[in-house]
Amino acid sequence: MTAEERMAFLAEPRIGVLAVGRDGRAPLAVPVWYDYEPGGDLLIWIDGGSVKDKVLTAAGTFSFAVHTETLPYKYVTAEGPVISKDTPPTEEQALRIAGRYLPAEEAAAYVRQSLSPRSVLVRMRPEKWLSNDQSKR
User: Fold this and answer.
1) Phi, psi (5° rounding) for residue 134?
2) How do the residues of the chain divide into helix, strand and coil, expressed in percent and rounded to 5?
3) Mean pLDDT (10-residue bins), the chain, 137 residues
4) The pTM is what?
């Protein structure tokens, strides 16, 4: 994929897989909701104090993968540093993330129920990419 194609692919609503190394164990790899606009930072909303929060703090960097589940297969991975992880998302940011996966009313209800002072907005700046589009073979 070209740089533009991989950024556009990552920007589509997909479930992403957060992967982060940790000492003495296999890397943590978990599915998460996210937001991304081409050329920008990857945003993930997590609970402060969670396993994800602790390993991201320790590692300071992570990989993120998205893919299609049907032929022709495509995937994109992005890797980069955590550039911020110290504040909750705004209600607007939380709605953008939840709204990628839920209808508007359900997203609003989810945000009202889930957004708290313990919430953390993680920003990652993609620096390294891998991608494959098997329709181009």
Assistant:
1) -70, -5
2) 30, 35, 35
3) 97 97 96 97 97 96 96 97 95 98 98 97 98 92
4) 0.94
